[in-house]
Fold:
Amino acid sequence: VRLATTGTLDTTFDTDGRVTTTIGTAAHAYSLEIRSNGKSIAGGLSSTLGFATAQYNSDGSLDTSFDSDGIATNAIGANSSGFTGSLQSDDKYVLAGSTGSAGNEVDFAITRYNTDGSLDTAFDSDGVATTDEIAGNSNAHDLAVQPDGTAGVQEHHRLARLEVTIADQVDQAIHRLARVDRVEQDALGAR
Structure:
């Protein structure tokens, strides 16, 4: 959905102000970013295809310069899901979420896409980084890319600082997660 400055649907966007794109089955978009060239990129999940991204031209049509059809999907292990995305200053798109692993544990998963929709192989050698450094299930639910290239990722009740750098030192840095333990409810009540 795109709104005009008046708050009404912008009819220059897919003629009615909204666009729906089918990606596998049960697809959900959780992230929307606007690139410096005015194109928009949505990120999320497809229950059958894993991480899913779609890029749109300013008129709401799929951008065929992005992965040839405007849609890129990546299955990363079992039950992979993208939940949060952000653009870097160089317009590369970072999508974070989770993937299943051995023992039915859920681990952080982070992908980085080039502007053409391909995975950025300079990012952890294949464009995909996963980590199980945080005990228990780890679902990335919020992501902020900082001006210096690092990224902060928020997980349900914990905060992790990922040293994801534009200089692509991710292969080791992704595993240097700092865990901030959950703040208990009674401590919050005391403030």
Remarks:
- The first strand starts at residue 27 and ends at 34.
- The radius of gyration is 17 Å.
- The chain has a mean pLDDT of 76.
